[in-house]
Predict the structure.
Amino acid sequence: MDISTTVNGEQVSGEVEPRQLLVHFIRETLGLKGTHWGCDTSNCGACVVLMDGRPVKSCTVLTAMCEGHEIRTVESLEVDGELDPLQQGFHERHALQCGFCTPGMLMTARALLDENPDPTDQEIRTAISGAICRCTGYQNIVSAVRWAAEHESATKQEI
Amino acid sequence: MAVVENLPSPSTERPIGFGRLKRKEDARFIRGKGTYLDDIELPGMVHGAVLRSPYAHARIVSIDTSAALAHPNVAAVVTAKDLETLGLAWMPTISYDTQAVLAGDKVRFQGQEVAFVIATDEYSANDALALIDVEYDPLPAVVNARKALDADAPLIRDDKSGQADNLASPTWEAGDERATERAFAEADHVVSRDMIYPRCHPAPLETCGIIADFNPETGQLDIYNGNQAPHAHRTVYAHVAGLAEHMIRIRCQDIGGGFGNKVPVYPGYVCAIAGSIVAGVPVKWVENRSENLMSTGFARDYIMRGEMCSKDGKITGLRVDAIADHGAFDSTAQPTKFPAGFFHIVCGSYDLQASHVKVKAVYSNKAPGGVAYRCSFRVTEAVYLVERMVDALALEMKADPIDLRMRSFIAAEQFPYETTTGWTYDSGEYAKTMDVAKKIAGYDDLRREQAEKRARGELMGIGVSFFTEGVGAGPRKHMDILGLAMNDGADLRVHPSGKAVVSISAQTQGQGHETTFAQIVAEELGIPPEDVEVRHGDTDKSPYGLGTYGSRSTPVSGGAVAVVSRKVRDKARMIAATMLETRPEDLAWEKGRWYVKGDPEKGAMIEDIAARAYSGEPMPADFEGGLDAQVIYDPPNLTYPYGAYIAVVDIDPDTGHVKVRRFIAVDDCGVRINPMVVDGQIHGGLAEGVGIALMELISFDEEGNCLNSSFMDYLIPTALECPDFELGETVTPCPHHPLGAKGVGESPTVGSPPAIVNAVIDALYEPHGVEHIDMPCTPARVWAAMQGRPEPPQ
């Protein structure tokens, strides 16, 4: 079937199998390997991308369902060589080890901060509770999201 | 023993070398630019999928692959018969057992590999699996290790000649049985407990997978595979497939977590290699999550009975009888001479009079393995047993669990200390570390809070554990796997510009080797860590060594990097002497520079020495030129990190739900190269410990169906189940490691489960008389125990 959608601001159209999962469309068809796959059952969150600004697990979304919607992946976070504050925060606060969950965590946290620029630690924990990290014990991820929130709001105030 | 409370603040006082340096590898990961196995695409690559057994135990009557072969996108379907012609139907395990690559005679666990489909794409390969018709004749299955020993239990390994029962190996013993009997006879208090360390799974977020690319023209086999021991894998493939070892190249790209799961060679790997050899094109196989949980290396599965005794208020004796469930094939990862791994480190941190340990290993109709899950060869089971027993004894003696531990610790002046089961602990100051934990926790206040809450009917528990681990396998004279000494190599080359490349045989899965190992070279040579590139994970470009697991990277590979750096430094001294027209013995070292003793202004920086080393200028006599060195490091002993952990839990009296409110972890892993990375390792390990204690379980029904084959059922802690961990540290340098460092990666996963279970029992013993609950302490189990009911079966 034919599909037309927007990925990272670019119009994408083509023919896909009706059963194709969005994660495979992103990874195989578009070659955006930053979105990972980890579990099949929408429990792990490694495949989280934003659909119209809301986090979705791309392993349980069909490509066909993206018709007319806007998808954002981890590759969109860095703009003109400038890291997203979340990317910077993850580096500052050692919020990643193997890096496999990182893209999904970043996109989940991006959606949180877009909706709530000043979340409490508990709100951050709740927001990322749909994503599993096997390496960090989450503490530094919470700290990194706080770092990003603080630096983002600082930047915005300057503007 | 010198104990340093805190290392000098690295960023201010020591700009080069050790300290909280942010990681080099982050740059690619935060951009989604890591390269994991499934990210790799090769020209002409096809995809494999594995057909697995729905039965735990069944004869294979027939396999009909014709419909699958007729699928337009299917290139081949491989069965045991095809592999037999290649001599690949069975493969050796890392415990000298054999394992079916594809089942031919019968299947022995649910999820066992039966056929391998190769198709143009992943979707088609999986479609074709449904077209393979296998007729099975089901047999009775046994999933309980005790029942596997019954006389009428079904025989699982009828493929092994002479095998008449389900014993996987002879009973293994350590310690002194008679001395232990005496200790118990003379004791004031004796206590016993039956406990199970249940089967759980490392479940790294990235599952296992491989790309095999055989070139028929050159005979070269290129393998891409995220594994924790690439050099050992290559040797195994050379033996299994009869290929020339030097014509195999394994590249481990970025690895999405390992935790022991990526140590073994799996049947899917062999199938992909065989497929590529036969088809002459690259074959990719990536398992799905269910395959990962159902068929790859599990962890633990120890049934244990412990007895402990005391005299004059101090722990004196320990007796342990354990049954190890290895599943259908014994592919436990452990050094050859240790059939029960390092389980006999079970005497823990205590100065015992005597101990005796027996371990029996059995086959069952469950997935094979017994790999680590962040555990140095069964240390985790041992620490859990001993730390649960100490708490049981404290209850019996009506003693405070910290006081009993304090009275029984091996004293600082007793190190090096030989345990009653034969380990030589290197260094420790246990009471000090316990005190730090007690202070951070505010232990006495916690006990007061608990008493007040108890009076109100609230369930609060405080649990303590104190662990000692033996990690960093290991000395060549004692430790090998499949005959390969557990040593690691390092090659260091300083280029003419003073920039360096160090190649190591350890393999990161997130531990930050690219940063930490650069810091070691930086510390030793005095050049900035950003000028040191760390290469690993490519058998063509790194020295031989056994890889990363068992907390061995820093103890073994770290030792290698320190030693090779010092060799380069010595070489630099020779060159500097020529440059400065003096004798090497007249030179002194300060970070980054050799200078003339008594004339410190006169000296040469490493980069100047490097430039000289490759130049046409005069060189020392017999000097070959260049500034490089290589070593294989054979550690003189294991390193023995330890720690004091305190968990505080609240239990909902209506549901039995356990909430870990606080967790205090004071680790002593000797000198810390990058304290930020060490803290990160501890956080992650503690989260896994929370999971094992409260949530994670691989269980089976009577027919051998795996009941936890997806993340819907295999529960992993999220950010909501994990508390903010409160860390502390003491630093007791390792006396035999070149940097004074000890391993740490597994400490938190080893030490935390007993602390949490001890806290649960501490909450429930007084109000409900509960003496023990097996992990995971799920709400259902805790609630049942509170009602005085037996635990729901595993």
Notes: Residues 58 and 113 of chain A are 20 Å apart (CA to CA). Chain A has a mean pLDDT of 96. Chain A touches chain B through 58 residues (CB under 8 Å).
